[in-house]
Specification:
Rossmann fold, RNA-binding, 18 helices, alpha/beta
RNA sequence: GGCGGCAUAGCCAAGCGGUAAGGCACGGGACUGCAAAUCCCUGAUCCCCCGGUUCAAAUCCGGGUGCCGCCUCCA
């Protein structure tokens, strides 16, 4: 079965056929670096991280480009507020961006262009549009002439007349038409600027993406992504500029992710109801957040709340227990061996096929995870307390896990050794924790108590540990422990 | 006002014409000194409502109702 992608351009699922077989050119709109990333950014980037991982898993050579918008009004304003300059501000938030995103296990794109490093390309593109009669300079600004592009609105489904009748189009007497948007903005005194044929100024928001796409990927790319809110006007304008300049289709597939809601309301900077990623990662493990995102389809809205997060944690814990067992079996000298025949184990044997089928259907991670859980239940049937006594079970369990592992990796899950997952991670959770030596001492004391059948004392110790956030699990090979979190 | 999306068990969530995946929570059983983990069993006679098409609809069509998003910077 072939990959099908929901294309916002046309609003329907289409078979995915890259321009060049086996090669995928993908551009994702990055962030404007004037503040910390919030969980909406995290969701978008996790969604495309999984898309890139899956495209590569399926054998494609993917060139993944994601920009930084490092110059615009918000950055300038914020820099002024903080008494700093745009460059120090954007540099600081780019550093913060990497700190947060790296913790999320997000792949670094192949190219991460910055708007300010592409001023010549942006100017050239403006000149090309002016020369073609698609844009015009006015008093140091350059505007794009929307009415000159007949297909304007084809992505967002809007038509020019409706837009004109809307009261929200800003009026600027310098524009020939209210719908026209700025490609180049002249700088006001004290603002950062770059020299241009129209005088000192800076690029408008939309043009930078067109220029960077063309420079790093070419005039037609395969996939252009971003959040749903970018459809209009940003992506609509990118199409208008780019296609007017080149006469070629700009992107073959437009992919847009749904929002993160808080209390069923869109979370956004403008509403002020947003959680920053670093704030959330103090109390939520990064992979729990990934699991949470992956458990819904990327185009659906997702509701961020404690209940949903703890459900995600419970689910991920279960997956990590499988990994924990596999690691234990490996350490005890087990080696992979054949999975027994029979329908009981079909979910493991067919895991990859089923997983791919789900992912090929517009990256249906929720369905894919369903299949993974089926497989997990199947290999858990092979779990044994004593791998040395039942080596075939441990071995079959191991090979089952090894078949699943690459699939989890596509989702970016189970990247840590299980001990790290269960024992570390959230910075806040780590504070005030009982040290390992103390835990081991208590376990030893409990072992002695249980040895002399003093169960009340044993239970007391276990309860005491639990109250301190440490869970004990007795197995044939001894007692193991993990932090509750 | 214009455009678009969604409504499935207590909660989250797949399903895209062939008779309701999966997760979490709950209950019963096995295992355990007791727990935990793991395994087994159990849960929607039905998919917001009303019509229609079809041999067959949660899935298609029409009409309601209720949420949500975009049209303004926004992942």
């Amino acid at each position: 079965m072939a990959l099908t992608i929901f294309n916002s351009l046309g609003n329907r699922k289409e078979p995915f056929v890259p321009l060049e077989p086996g090669k995928v050119k993908l551009y994702l709109c990055g962030v404007t670096v004037y503040d910390f990333c919030h969980i909406g950014h995290a969701r978008a980037n996790v969604a495309f991280d999984i898309i890139v991982r899956y495209l590569r898993f399926s054998g494609n050579q993917v060139t993944f480009v994601r920009n930084f918008t490092d110059i615009d009004d918000k950055i300038i304003n914020r820099a002024n507020e903080q008494g700093t300059d745009y460059l120090s501000l954007s540099t600081r938030y780019i550093e913060a961006f990497y700190e947060d995103f790296d913790r999320m296990g997000l792949l670094r794109p192949d190219v991460e262009p910055k708007a300010t490093e592409h001023i010549p390309e942006i100017i050239t593109l403006c000149e090309r549009l002016i020369a073609g009669g698609k844009a015009y300079p006015v008093a140091g600004d350059v505007y794009y002439s929307v009415k000159g592009f007949k297909e304007y609105g084809k992505l967002s489904g809007k038509n020019i007349d409706d837009l004109l009748s809307g009261a929200r189009v800003d009026v600027d007497e310098r524009k020939k038409d209210p719908l026209d948007f700025a490609l180049w903005k002249s700088s006001k005194p004290g603002e950062p600027f770059w020299e241009s044929p129209w005088g000192p100024g800076r690029p408008g928001w939309h043009i930078e993406c067109s220029a960077m796409v063309m420079k790093h990927l070419g005039e037609t790319i395969d996939i252009h992504g971003g959040g749903k809110d970018l459809v209009f006007p940003h992506h609509e304008n990118e199409i208008a500029q780019s296609e007017a300049a080149t006469g070629k289709p700009f992107a073959r597939y437009w992919v847009h992710n749904g929002f993160v809601n808080v209390d069923d309301e869109k979370m956004s900077k403008s509403l002020g109801n947003f959680f920053t990623l670093r704030e959330v990662l103090k109390v939520v493990k990064p992979e729990v957040l990934r699991f949470f995102f992956a458990s819904s389809h990327y185009r659906s809205p997702i509701d961020y709340c404690d209940t949903n997060l703890s459900e995600a944690k419970a689910g991920l814990d279960r997956l990590y227990r499988v990994k924990e067992k596999a690691e234990g079996y490996l350490a005890s000298g087990a080696f992979p061996c054949a999975i027994p025949p029979g329908d009981d184990f079909a979910p493991v044997r067919d895991a990859q096929t089923r997983f791919r089928e789900a992912m090929d259907d517009d990256f249906n991670t929720a369905a894919a995870m369903g299949h993974l859980f089926d497989a997990v239940r199947a290999i858990n049937k092979l779990a044994t307390d004593d791998p040395k006594a039942e080596p075939w079970k441990a071995g079959a369990f191991l090979s089952g896990f090894m078949q699943l592992n690459p699939l989890f990796d596509v989702l970016g899950l189970l990247r840590l050794p299980s001990a790290d997952y269960f024992r570390n991670e959230t910075s806040e959770g780590a504070e005030g924790r009982m040290p390992e030596s103390e835990i081991l001492g208590a376990i030893e004391a409990r072992r002695e108590a249980r040895g002399r059948k003093d169960y009340p004392e044993g239970d007391r110790i276990r309860k005491e540990l639990e109250d301190s956030g440490v869970l004990l699990e007795d197995g044939k090979a001894g007692t193991t422990w993990k932090y509750k979190d």
